[in-house]
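hiii so um. not sure if this is the right channel but i have a protein structure encoded as C-alpha coordinates and i wanna go backwards to a sequence. like what aa goes where. can anyone help
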Protein backbone atom coordinates (compact mmCIF):
# COMPACT_ATOMS: atom_id res chain seq x y z
CA UNK A 1 0.00 0.00 0.00
CA UNK A 2 3.06 2.27 0.09
CA UNK A 3 2.44 4.18 -3.13
CA UNK A 4 -1.30 4.57 -2.57
CA UNK A 5 -0.74 5.79 0.99
CA UNK A 6 1.92 8.29 -0.03
CA UNK A 7 -0.27 9.71 -2.79
CA UNK A 8 -3.23 10.01 -0.41
CA UNK A 9 -1.19 11.85 2.22
CA UNK A 10 0.44 14.20 -0.28
CA UNK A 11 -2.89 15.00 -1.96
CA UNK A 12 -4.50 15.86 1.35
CA UNK A 13 -1.62 17.95 2.66
CA UNK A 14 -1.52 19.91 -0.60
CA UNK A 15 -5.22 20.74 -0.32
CA UNK A 16 -5.39 21.57 3.40
CA UNK A 17 -6.64 25.08 4.15
CA UNK A 18 -4.02 27.18 5.89
CA UNK A 19 -6.49 28.26 8.57
CA UNK A 20 -7.67 24.74 9.45
CA UNK A 21 -8.59 24.50 13.12
CA UNK A 22 -7.43 20.88 13.33
CA UNK A 23 -5.32 18.54 11.22
CA UNK A 24 -5.33 14.85 12.08
CA UNK A 25 -4.06 11.50 10.87
CA UNK A 26 -5.79 8.14 11.45
CA UNK A 27 -4.23 4.74 10.70
CA UNK A 28 -6.95 2.09 10.40
CA UNK A 29 -7.52 -1.64 10.31
CA UNK A 30 -10.80 -3.20 9.31
CA UNK A 31 -12.76 -5.59 7.14
CA UNK A 32 -13.30 -5.29 3.39
CA UNK A 33 -16.53 -6.97 2.24
CA UNK A 34 -17.72 -6.71 -1.39
CA UNK A 35 -21.47 -7.17 -1.73
CA UNK A 36 -21.77 -7.83 -5.47
CA UNK A 37 -20.25 -10.35 -7.85
CA UNK A 38 -17.66 -8.85 -10.15
CA UNK A 39 -18.78 -11.07 -13.00
CA UNK A 40 -21.65 -13.38 -13.88
CA UNK A 41 -21.67 -15.30 -17.17
CA UNK A 42 -23.57 -18.23 -18.59
CA UNK A 43 -23.87 -20.02 -21.92
CA UNK A 44 -25.87 -23.01 -23.18
CA UNK A 45 -23.62 -25.94 -24.10
CA UNK A 46 -24.69 -28.87 -26.28
CA UNK A 47 -24.07 -32.40 -24.99
CA UNK A 48 -25.03 -35.93 -25.96
CA UNK A 49 -28.09 -35.69 -23.73
CA UNK A 50 -29.18 -32.22 -24.82
CA UNK A 51 -28.21 -28.79 -23.51
CA UNK A 52 -26.87 -27.70 -20.14
CA UNK A 53 -25.91 -24.27 -18.85
CA UNK A 54 -22.22 -23.57 -18.27
CA UNK A 55 -22.11 -20.72 -15.76
CA UNK A 56 -19.42 -18.65 -14.08
CA UNK A 57 -19.66 -16.53 -10.95
CA UNK A 58 -16.71 -14.40 -9.80
CA UNK A 59 -16.72 -12.60 -6.45
CA UNK A 60 -14.01 -11.24 -4.16
CA UNK A 61 -14.18 -12.72 -0.68
CA UNK A 62 -14.01 -10.59 2.50
CA UNK A 63 -10.51 -9.70 3.67
CA UNK A 64 -8.69 -7.67 6.29
CA UNK A 65 -8.04 -4.09 5.20
CA UNK A 66 -5.31 -1.65 6.18
CA UNK A 67 -5.53 2.07 5.60
CA UNK A 68 -4.79 5.63 6.56
CA UNK A 69 -6.78 8.87 6.62
CA UNK A 70 -5.50 12.44 6.70
CA UNK A 71 -8.04 15.18 7.45
CA UNK A 72 -8.38 18.91 8.01
CA UNK A 73 -11.26 20.47 9.90
CA UNK A 74 -12.74 23.96 10.13
CA UNK A 75 -15.68 24.04 12.53
CA UNK A 76 -18.27 21.45 11.54
CA UNK A 77 -16.85 20.98 8.04
CA UNK A 78 -13.68 19.42 6.74
CA UNK A 79 -11.74 17.74 3.95
CA UNK A 80 -10.11 14.33 4.04
CA UNK A 81 -8.18 11.90 1.88
CA UNK A 82 -7.99 8.21 2.66
CA UNK A 83 -6.31 5.13 1.25
CA UNK A 84 -7.26 1.53 1.94
CA UNK A 85 -5.96 -1.76 0.60
CA UNK A 86 -7.16 -5.34 1.08
CA UNK A 87 -5.41 -8.49 -0.11
CA UNK A 88 -7.94 -11.29 -0.49
CA UNK A 89 -9.12 -13.99 -2.89
CA UNK A 90 -11.25 -13.86 -6.02
CA UNK A 91 -13.49 -16.93 -5.88
CA UNK A 92 -14.54 -18.18 -9.31
CA UNK A 93 -17.23 -20.85 -9.37
CA UNK A 94 -18.19 -22.60 -12.58
CA UNK A 95 -19.69 -25.89 -13.69
CA UNK A 96 -16.28 -27.58 -13.65
CA UNK A 97 -15.35 -26.50 -10.11
CA UNK A 98 -14.18 -23.66 -7.88
CA UNK A 99 -10.94 -21.69 -8.15
CA UNK A 100 -9.47 -19.08 -5.80
CA UNK A 101 -6.79 -16.62 -6.92
CA UNK A 102 -5.02 -13.76 -5.16
CA UNK A 103 -6.77 -10.42 -5.63
CA UNK A 104 -5.77 -7.05 -4.17
CA UNK A 105 -8.15 -4.10 -4.09
CA UNK A 106 -6.84 -0.61 -3.28
CA UNK A 107 -9.01 2.49 -2.96
CA UNK A 108 -8.12 6.15 -2.56
CA UNK A 109 -10.83 8.68 -1.76
CA UNK A 110 -11.25 12.43 -1.28
CA UNK A 111 -14.28 13.52 0.73
CA UNK A 112 -16.10 16.54 2.08
CA UNK A 113 -16.95 15.93 5.75
CA UNK A 114 -19.72 17.18 8.03
CA UNK A 115 -18.99 16.76 11.76
CA UNK A 116 -21.54 16.39 14.56
CA UNK A 117 -20.95 16.62 18.30
CA UNK A 118 -23.15 14.35 20.42
CA UNK A 119 -21.51 14.95 23.78
CA UNK A 120 -18.27 16.15 25.30
CA UNK A 121 -16.62 12.81 24.46
CA UNK A 122 -18.51 11.51 21.40
CA UNK A 123 -18.44 12.88 17.85
CA UNK A 124 -19.94 11.71 14.57
CA UNK A 125 -19.21 12.47 10.94
CA UNK A 126 -20.66 11.88 7.48
CA UNK A 127 -18.48 12.19 4.37
CA UNK A 128 -18.99 11.89 0.60
CA UNK A 129 -16.74 12.23 -2.42
CA UNK A 130 -15.05 10.52 -5.39
CA UNK A 131 -12.90 7.41 -5.15
CA UNK A 132 -10.30 5.76 -7.35
CA UNK A 133 -10.14 1.94 -7.31
CA UNK A 134 -7.22 -0.26 -8.39
CA UNK A 135 -7.42 -4.03 -8.97
CA UNK A 136 -4.26 -6.14 -8.91
CA UNK A 137 -3.09 -9.68 -8.26
CA UNK A 138 -2.96 -13.10 -9.87
CA UNK A 139 -6.71 -13.11 -10.49
CA UNK A 140 -6.41 -10.26 -13.02
CA UNK A 141 -3.11 -11.11 -14.75
CA UNK A 142 -4.58 -12.92 -17.76
CA UNK A 143 -8.24 -11.94 -17.63
CA UNK A 144 -10.51 -9.48 -15.91
CA UNK A 145 -11.99 -6.04 -16.55
CA UNK A 146 -10.71 -4.05 -19.51
CA UNK A 147 -9.62 -1.28 -17.14
CA UNK A 148 -8.31 -2.26 -13.71
CA UNK A 149 -8.40 1.30 -12.38
CA UNK A 150 -11.81 2.99 -12.27
CA UNK A 151 -13.48 6.04 -10.79
CA UNK A 152 -16.43 5.77 -8.44
CA UNK A 153 -18.22 7.37 -5.53
CA UNK A 154 -17.92 6.77 -1.81
CA UNK A 155 -19.88 7.67 1.31
CA UNK A 156 -18.77 7.12 4.88
CA UNK A 157 -20.20 7.41 8.38
CA UNK A 158 -18.05 7.44 11.52
CA UNK A 159 -18.20 7.82 15.28
CA UNK A 160 -15.29 8.87 17.48
CA UNK A 161 -14.70 8.60 21.22
CA UNK A 162 -12.46 11.39 22.50
CA UNK A 163 -10.16 9.60 24.90
CA UNK A 164 -8.04 12.72 25.35
CA UNK A 165 -7.09 15.86 23.47
CA UNK A 166 -4.33 13.90 21.74
CA UNK A 167 -6.03 10.55 21.21
CA UNK A 168 -9.37 9.59 19.66
CA UNK A 169 -10.77 6.12 18.99
CA UNK A 170 -12.73 5.98 15.71
CA UNK A 171 -15.03 3.39 14.15
CA UNK A 172 -16.41 3.77 10.64
CA UNK A 173 -18.33 2.27 7.75
CA UNK A 174 -17.75 3.25 4.11
CA UNK A 175 -19.41 2.18 0.86
CA UNK A 176 -17.37 2.33 -2.36
CA UNK A 177 -19.53 2.28 -5.49
CA UNK A 178 -18.06 1.69 -8.97
CA UNK A 179 -18.63 -0.17 -12.23
CA UNK A 180 -16.33 -2.68 -13.94
CA UNK A 181 -16.28 -3.35 -17.69
CA UNK A 182 -15.40 -6.88 -18.79
CA UNK A 183 -15.86 -6.17 -22.50
CA UNK A 184 -17.54 -8.31 -25.14
CA UNK A 185 -18.92 -11.60 -23.75
CA UNK A 186 -18.61 -13.32 -27.12
CA UNK A 187 -21.13 -14.43 -29.72
CA UNK A 188 -24.79 -14.98 -28.75
CA UNK A 189 -26.28 -16.64 -26.82
CA UNK A 190 -23.49 -15.97 -24.29
CA UNK A 191 -24.68 -13.70 -21.47
CA UNK A 192 -22.20 -11.69 -19.39
CA UNK A 193 -23.09 -9.31 -16.60
CA UNK A 194 -20.89 -7.10 -14.45
CA UNK A 195 -22.95 -5.84 -11.54
CA UNK A 196 -22.56 -2.43 -9.95
CA UNK A 197 -19.97 -2.88 -7.23
CA UNK A 198 -20.75 -1.99 -3.61
CA UNK A 199 -17.68 -2.61 -1.48
CA UNK A 200 -18.26 -2.10 2.24
CA UNK A 201 -15.29 -1.33 4.49
CA UNK A 202 -15.59 -1.26 8.27
CA UNK A 203 -12.68 0.41 10.06
CA UNK A 204 -11.25 0.85 13.52
CA UNK A 205 -8.64 3.54 13.93
CA UNK A 206 -6.76 5.75 16.34
CA UNK A 207 -6.87 9.45 15.45
CA UNK A 208 -3.89 11.58 16.33
CA UNK A 209 -4.42 15.36 15.98
CA UNK A 210 -1.36 16.97 14.41
CA UNK A 211 -2.75 20.43 15.12
CA UNK A 212 -5.22 20.36 18.07
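sure thing!! here u go:
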Amino acid sequence: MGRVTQLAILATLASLPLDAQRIEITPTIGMYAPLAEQLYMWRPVASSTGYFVDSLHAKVEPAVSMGIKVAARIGQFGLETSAITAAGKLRTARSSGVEQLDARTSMAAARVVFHMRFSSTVEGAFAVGPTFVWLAGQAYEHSGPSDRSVLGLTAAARAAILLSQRLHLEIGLADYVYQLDFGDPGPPPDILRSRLQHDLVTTLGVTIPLRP
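oh and Residues 45 and 52 are 5 Å apart (CA to CA).
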